[in-house]
Amino acid sequence: MAQDTDVVVIGMGVGGEHVAERLAGAGLDVVGVEAELVGGECPYWACIPSKMMIRAGNLLAEARRLPGMAGQAQVAPDFAPVAARIRDEATDDWNDQVAVERFTGKGGRFVRGCARLAGPGRVEADGQVFIARRGVVLATGSRPQIPPVSGLDQVPYWTNRDAMAAKEPPASLLVLGGGAVGLELAQVFARFGTAVTVIEAMERLLPAEEPEVGALLSDVLGAEGITVRTGARVIGVRHAEDTFQLTLDGGEEVTGQHLLVATGRRPNLAGLGLESVGLDPDARALDVDGQLRAAAGLWGVGDLTGHGFFTHVAVYQAEIAVRSVLGEPGPDADYRALSRVTFTDPEVGSVGLAEHAARERGLRVRTGTAQVPSSARGWIHKAGNEGLIKLVEDAERGVLVGATSAGPAGGEVLYGLAVAVQAQVPVDRLRHMIYAYPTFHRAVEDALAALRHG
Ligand SMILES: Cc1cc2nc3c(=O)[nH]c(=O)nc-3n(C[C@H](O)[C@H](O)[C@H](O)COP(=O)(O)OP(=O)(O)OC[C@H]3O[C@@H](n4cnc5c(N)ncnc54)[C@H](O)[C@@H]3O)c2cc1C
Ligand SMILES: NC(=O)c1ccc[n+]([C@@H]2O[C@H](COP(=O)([O-])OP(=O)(O)OC[C@H]3O[C@@H](n4cnc5c(N)ncnc54)[C@H](O)[C@@H]3O)[C@@H](O)[C@H]2O)c1
Q1: Are residues 305 and 357 in the same domain?
Q2: Would the CB of 310 count as within 6 Å of ligand 1?
Q3: Same domain (yes/no): 130, 276
Q4: pLDDT by residue (tens digit) across 271-322?
């Protein structure tokens, strides 16, 4: 028999969990359905374990920077504490009991299973049927996008999930894709002694970001001993005797003990029953309006909306969806000042539009760039000081529409630039601010001084 409830949340990753807990906390009867682990990708296989790995890799890199700066250190990398932290502190050995109890403790009803829509306000899960009076929130996230490379579907490649569960670094690793996942993990494993080759199809690393950043990362990763192949297409994959062999389009072969496929993600819409509510199940992403509504009584938050695969986007959208479900007024989602940080060393932070994206929108653009090593703090910092600040100004309006901050703490330096883009602070005002000496963010002042038409 069908059970009545106020709201059903399908998918209890960061987005869905936030919605479900907030609505249950507001006194609604909420059913939360999760096929795998409550918390989703971020705590178990993505943001948190990868950042624990990166913290460890950065410690090794800092120790290796001692010569010429502060003495000598014997560095003997050991991945065991990293794997243990991921198992014990990050993921509770991939057990979500605490998260489930946090939700049920707020009065939520939890169902473990794969849910699907069976008409407006109607959800089937784990052999049960729920009728949602207020509506349904879809938050099913995304999964790795596997490219159609000949032989790839026949071999035991890694995705981010296998990498996060690794107990030791592989002897060698081929990384397909020079985006955020590929580069963060390439650098970590290399710092633990893995021989890493990154193969990126586009002409540069992090191709969606400023080209200066792709060049910077190629140099830094190359100097750390990582082989970086850009503009490289893999046309075939084979696996035999614990070795992966990739054939590049020029005929060259590259080999490695493991292969990490990190070529992007795609929203999980298949099998959700979208056709039962008149929506296209084959769409690339769930189309939502500014209040995160996909249809009457149907909301969507997180990766499946295609507005950027980031935890901060999922949680931002979740707050708006909560207000919308509760019928409370509030502003529409606004992605103009969306920040993203790739946690390589140097960290690459960016907000808003890269120069090429601003030009594609027809803006009259001025850009200004400053090199971190040439700034006072960068010069003082010395070892590991690589980085740059690049600003993108809409010259008509005299405001920044985008900025990049790469360097030590580049993701933190980004914050001031994100405020400037979000609040549309006039560039002239930014020029007449006082920037503390000698901070990394003082390079912003140099970049402002360099703003000129390209
Ligand atoms: C390696 C890696 C590192 C990352 N690092 C960062 C980072 O540093 N910072 C950052 O902001 N972002 C990072 N991300 C992205 C971040 O993990 C995602 O953006 C975030 O997890 C999205 O949350 P979500 O709730 O939309 O989806 P998910 O976390 O994917 O959760 C969706 C949930 O829905 C469940 N589900 C799916 N279908 C159904 C169904 N039919 N019924 C029931 N349940 C279902 C799934 O099991 C899953 O638990 C990283 C991603 C990766 C891969
Ligand atoms: N620090 C963070 O916030 C963080 C970290 C990791 C992941 N993420 C999120 O997860 C998402 C997925 O990360 P990702 O790195 O998998 O995707 P991505 O889209 O960032 O990068 C994928 C890369 O693979 C390349 N590529 C695609 N097909 C290829 C092929 N056949 N051969 C070689 N290269 C190919 C693309 O050109 C691109 O550079 C990101 O979009 C990001 O939003 C965020």
Answers
A1: no
A2: yes
A3: yes
A4: 999 999 999 999 999 999 999 999 999 999 999 999 999 999 999 999 999 9
